[in-house]
Amino acid sequence: MTKEEVINKLYKQTGMKKDETRVLVEGFLATIANALKKGKRIDFRGFGHFEVRKREPRKGRVPGTGREIDIPERAVPMFKASDLLKEAVDKEYKDDNFQLS
What we know:
- With 101 residues, the chain is α+β, with helices and mostly antiparallel strands.
- The protein has one domain: HU Protein, Chain A.
- Helices cover 44% and strands 27% of the residues.
- It has helices spanning 3-14, 18-37, 83-94; strands spanning 42-44, 48-55, 58-61, 68-71, 74-81.
- It has a 3-stranded antiparallel beta sheet with strand order 1-2-5. A two-stranded antiparallel sheet has the order 3-4.
- Strand 1 and strand 2 form a beta hairpin.
């Protein structure tokens, strides 16, 4: 699903104006992004959490040449689904209501 599809779905479900829905979704995403930029963790009970993790420096290879390169330490945003979300997705998968896009 794209952001635009999410906006359209919420617009139809809530009865809000489409522009208001767009502002809400974009504000929600910006709030998450800003919190992650500050190293904060965002929890949605029953859904999952977003957090920033540190990736250690490591060696890598350039695919075309095979030359070894140094990959520096960096911070990456991560999402971890809750057990409830994992179970719900698995149930739909097993009930044949699941479609991979």
